[in-house]
Write a structure and sequence with these properties.
- The protein is globular and about 65 Å long.
- It has 14 helices and 15 strands.
- It folds into 2 domains: 213 residues, Aspartate Aminotransferase, domain 2, CATH 3.40.640.10; 110 residues, Aspartate Aminotransferase, domain 1 (Alpha-Beta Complex), CATH 3.90.1150.
- The protein is an alpha/beta fold and 429 residues long.
- Strand 7, helix 7 and strand 8 form a beta-alpha-beta unit.
- The two termini are 39 Å apart.
Length: 429
């Protein structure tokens, strides 16, 4: 099946008109948003902007949108709606859960973290260990391809292990970890697994039931939505753990974890982002660019929808196939540039184990200078460590300004990649 990137790009206002000249390769730091997200957010603010649980119509309508957002995210992650918790961002949610889990720890208990993770899935556990007298165990990486040393992980998980924190995909070098195998190993000793799926969510299908992970977090602004964080937790854990909350708040999940007033218009936007991905699946099934009329306020789904889940899986599968081909073209082009060192998996036979997030250094050019030079040509990339401090230190690049990061999304094109390669080749001369 051919992937209709033109139809995709037409959904994103930032990619049309004056925005056509801009090359958005900063996607790992935040993607552009489709029109449906803007429509949902605007419609919320105009028609049902109210606080929670009121007796009047706008509050009733507002709660309906929030319930619909929970159901939509449940279909995206393959969970129950009451297992979805919204918050300010992944980092804030992780600190909240780590604090609650801290009540279960005793001095000498062990927490396993990896050098491949974003610091938001490391620092909360380091601080928790400091507070509770727990011991941190670090899983190292193979420097040659930036993959986890699974033998280390197997050895480190033992009878004192209580929590294993791992990323689904690296936000720095793109490595996809074998989360299912890690969960199985951790559960074998009775440990809980906390998965950071922020970088993976825009690039593939997530099935928390199949993974059997205990917690999984992601961020909507990384999968074409607004700035909002999402936590999945097994209901029995969300129900049993004690949340730090105000006293009048409900004691039942997910509400007991959603402290304070939520970003209601943002949650409406999350609903829109899931609806966009559902539309992508309808297009992949031959529905055409105009397929899939979206539900109005009164007909939005408030429960799991098998049909929506089917379309989401189809859309994300088609998206991943397109990105894998485009990512291969990017990596091949980068490897032709003199003085460029690429980090991560570069073997085409193993591309199923990476997302199209690529980091590199260029001889004679500090990463910041590369980003500045590319920006002059309207090519947007990131530089530094992107809060993946541990891997930047492990690779020995932190003191030299980190790396340049290029991250593809399914709205990027082969022609855009060619422009990037040409601009980098000119710098390397």
């Amino acid at each position: 099946m051919s992937f209709d990137v033109a139809a995709v790009r037409a959904q994103f206002p930032a990619l049309t008109g004056p925005g056509e000249a801009r090359l958005f390769f900063d996607n790992p730091g935040g993607t552009q948003v489709p029109r449906r997200v803007l429509e949902r957010m605007t419609d919320y603010l105009v028609r049902c902007n109210a606080n929670h649980a009121g007796a009047f119509q706008t509050s009733v309508d507002s709660d309906r949108i929030l319930d619909a957002a929970h159901a939509a995210m449940a279909d995206l992650l393959h969970s129950r709606p009451d297992e979805i918790v919204f918050g300010a961002n992944m980092t804030t949610l992780t600190f909240a859960v780590s604090r609650a889990l801290g009540r279960l720890l005793q001095p000498g208990d062990e927490i396993v973290v990896t050098r491949l993770d974003h610091d938001a899935n490391i620092a909360p556990w380091l601080l928790l260990a400091e507070d509770r007298g727990a011991v941190i165990r670090w899983v190292d990486v193979h420097e040659a391809d930036c993959t986890l040393k699974m033998s280390d992980l197997e050895a480190l998980i033992g009878p004192r292990t209580k929590i294993v924190a791992v990323g689904y995909a690296s936000n720095a070098v793109g490595t996809i970890n074998d989360v299912a195998a890690i969960v199985k190993r951790a559960h074998g000793v009775g440990a809980l697994v906390y998965v950071d799926a922020v970088q993976y969510a825009p690039h593939g299908v997530i099935d928390v039931r199949a993974l059997d992970c205990d917690f999984l977090v992601c961020s909507a602004y990384k999968f074409f939505g607004p700035h909002a964080g999402i936590l999945y937790g097994k209901f029995e854990l969300l129900d049993r753990l004690r949340a730090y909350k105000v006293r009048p708040a409900t004691d039942r999940p997910p509400g007991k974890w959603e402290t304070g007033t939520q970003n209601h218009e943002g949650l409406a936007g999350v609903l829109g982002a899931v609806e966009y991905l559902e539309w992508l699946g309808q297009v992949a099934d031959g529905g055409g660019p105009t397929a899939g009329a979206f539900s109005d306020l009164q007909s939005v789904s408030l429960q799991n929808s098998p049909a929506r889940r089917k379309h989401l899986v189809r859309g994300l599968t088609a998206l991943a196939d397109y990105e894998r081909e485009l990512g291969a073209y990017l990596i091949e082009g980068l490897q032709t540039i003199r003085g460029l060192r690429l980090y991560g998996i570069t073997d085409p036979a193993r591309y199923a184990w990476r997302v199209p997030t690529v980091a590199f250094t260029l001889d004679g050019w500090p990463p910041r200078k590369v980003a500045e030079q590319l920006a002059e040509h309207q090519i947007f990339v990131w530089d530094g460590n992107y809060y993946a401090l541990a891997i930047a230190e492990r690779l020995g690049v932190q003191e030299r300004g980190g790396m340049v990061r290029v991250g593809l999304a399914h709205y990027n094109t082969r022609q855009e990649v060619e422009r990037l390669i040409q601009a980098l080749a000119a710098l390397a001369q």
